[in-house]
Design goal:
The chain is α+β, with helices and mostly antiparallel strands. Helices cover about 30% and strands about 15% of the residues. Helix 9 packs antiparallel against helix 10. About 35% of the residues are buried.
Length: about 575
């Protein structure tokens, strides 16, 4: 926190969300009651080393570390604070005096300090334990505010995936050896993380929705939260549908991993040097994006959470419980936890940052990565728009050659004095996405013809279109595309084309098998140079013509293709 921000905080009076505590060399006992009250109400900021009147007294330098450790120990002690919580403590200095600033977020649970329930009112902490109505209202408010608190008494710790719990425990053993969860069994860990709670109605203990979402099997998650899914979409070429997709419907631990894997697969990670240290800006940014999508989602909503990678940007939409509307401003935005228990757990295993710091990190590195400030828009769906670098032209805007009559040219022929038309150049008619990924395709032909087509030799051809069907025999390429269909095509083909056709003599094959048999590794080159031209002139055809992008799609030899092989000096059928 800057000196100016700290001074502004001190100039305020104590109130519902701000408390000053004098603390020269030891913690006052009332500090824990204040923490409990903040947790039960709307959260707040606690400043240690400041008098009730806002005068800075400071903490003795030789006592600072002891005070800090005493505080951390106490709030993690279930005999002092139940359920225990995890808070961040920041050391501040003002006018040469040491202070401790502690932000206490609102909790989704009802907390007790020394067995008593405290609530916050104005600048005071009040014991409401013996006021039945106030306690009941507190429980109702907590339950209504946070969907993650819903308890499922029929789901017990033994129903969860123990391997995931152990994975988190092992991470803490390696990276945070002093964390109390490292020595707890599964049930104790779940209770400590507030994921195993008594049902307010029946009193029976059960897993909360947060616990199920973190560690449940896919079947349990489907029963507890049927609408849960994260849709990951790549949409750069086929902008009407998608180029790649991963529909994630599993626990949040593995969902986080799959989001990052999808991002790493499809987004560049340009070299960036911060001083003398290389930083992966992509990973820094999208770790924050992934955790935000998972821990700040409103799981009571039936809406789908989506991450869409487009040309030059990434857009996320996440069902939310808004606390305002419109674009967030870094200077004025107030952090608010929408699922405190999920947030706390993700912070414990280093999958999320402290409340508020993630947004600042996103804004800081987002512009360095994509050249523009990220946009964070609050609403019923929380939207993030992040610019990403691109190192090639937008493939979705590649110009297409379309004949004047609107027909789809399959091949350009030149008519000579012979009965059989001869092929002089080929039109590389292919779809705008990956292999067969376009809708409404005609059987045996691809929709649209792009410029820069490739010939059967596998070499790039610079022409925009094919030769017209005029009687000009000079062989000059003109930009006009002939519209007549060939009656019979007998081009000069290369050995690779013969191999491609020969691979399909006995049985239809998927694209991958054809590539393997003719020894071409590059999928895009194979598609443009061989597959699409062969489809266009009807030497091969799809086995599922009505669904070009079917996972069962294969390609088979046509009668025209067989005729070519019969006439080839290398093959006879």
């Amino acid at each position: 926190m800057t000196t100016r921000a700290l001074e502004n905080l001190l100039n305020q009076k104590e109130g519902l969300e701000l408390e000053f505590k004098a603390c020269r060399d030891q913690l006052p006992k009332s500090v824990y009651e204040t923490v409990c009250a903040f947790l039960n109400r709307h959260g707040g900021t606690l400043l240690l080393g400041v008098g009730d009147d806002g005068a800075v007294q400071g903490i003795a330098p030789d006592a600072l570390e002891r005070v800090r450790k005493d505080f951390v120990t106490a709030i993690n002690n279930p005999q002092k604070l139940t359920p225990p919580t995890y808070l961040s403590i920041n050391e501040e200095t003002l006018d040469g005096k040491n202070l401790l600033r502690i932000y206490v977020p609102e909790s989704s649970q009802v907390h007790r300090c020394n067995g008593r329930i405290y609530d916050r009112n104005e600048d005071g902490d009040f014991d409401i334990t013996d006021h039945t109505e106030q306690v009941a209202q507190l429980y109702l408010r907590k339950r209504a505010t946070y969907s993650e608190n819903r308890v499922y008494p029929w789901i017990q710790p033994g129903d969860l995936r123990g391997d995931l719990i152990e994975r988190c425990r092992n991470y803490l053993r390696i990276n945070r050896k002093d964390h109390p969860w490292t020595e707890m069994n599964d049930e104790a860990l779940l209770k400590s993380a507030q994921l195993l709670q008594p049902d307010p109605e029946s009193g029976k203990p059960g897993l909360t929705l947060a616990g199920v979402m973190l560690f449940g099997t896919d079947e349990l998650i489907l029963q507890a939260c049927p609408a849960h899914r994260t849709d990951l979409i790549l949409r750069k070429i086929d902008v009407d549908r998608y180029d790649d997709r991963d529909l994630v419907r599993t626990n949040l631990i593995e969902s986080y991993d799959r989001i990052l894997a999808f991002v790493k697969k499809h987004l560049p990670d340009p070299f960036y040097l911060d001083g003398i240290e290389r930083r992966s800006l992509r990973d820094i940014i999208f770790r924050e994006v992934a955790s935000n999508m998972l821990i700040h989602r409103e799981y009571a909503s039936g809406a789908t959470s989506r991450l869409i990678i487009e040309y030059g940007r990434v857009v996320t939409d996440n069902p939310s419980r808004p606390h305002g509307f419109g674009q967030l401003n870094l200077e004025t935005a107030v952090p608010f936890q929408k699922n405190p228990n999920l947030s706390a757990f993700f912070r414990a295993i280093d999958r999320a940052d402290e409340l508020g710091s993630g947004m600042r990190k996103l804004m800081l590195w987002g512009k360095k990565y994509g050249g523009k400030n990220p946009q964070l828009i609050e609403g019923d769906n929380f939207r993030m728009i992040l610019a990403v670098p691109e190192f090639s032209e937008n493939p979705a805007t590649t110009p297409e050659v379309v004949p004047a009559d609107g027909r789809n040219p399959k091949v350009t022929t030149e008519v000579n004095n012979e009965d059989t038309p001869q092929v002089t150049t080929e039109v590389g008619a292919h779809d705008k996405a990956h292999d067969g990924a376009q809708s409404g395709a005609e059987s045996g032909a691809e929709s649209g013809a792009e410029s820069g087509a490739e010939s059967f030799t596998g070499q790039d051809t610079p022409q925009v279109g094919a030769q017209s069907g005029s009687e000009d025999s000079t062989g000059q390429v003109t930009p006009q595309v002939a519209t007549q269909d060939p009656t019979e095509v007998t081009p000069q083909v290369t050995p690779q084309v013969i191999e491609c056709l020969s691979a399909l003599v006995k049985t239809p094959l998927p694209r991958e098998k054809i590539q393997q048999q003719i020894g071409i590794k590059d999928r895009e080159h194979f598609r443009k140079a061989y597959l699409e031209p062969l489809l266009a002139i009807e030497w091969i055809e799809r086995t599922v013509p009505d669904k070009p992008n079917s996972r069962l799609q294969k390609y088979r030899l046509t009668d025209k293709g067989r005729a070519v092989l019969q006439e080839s000096p290398k093959e006879g059928i």
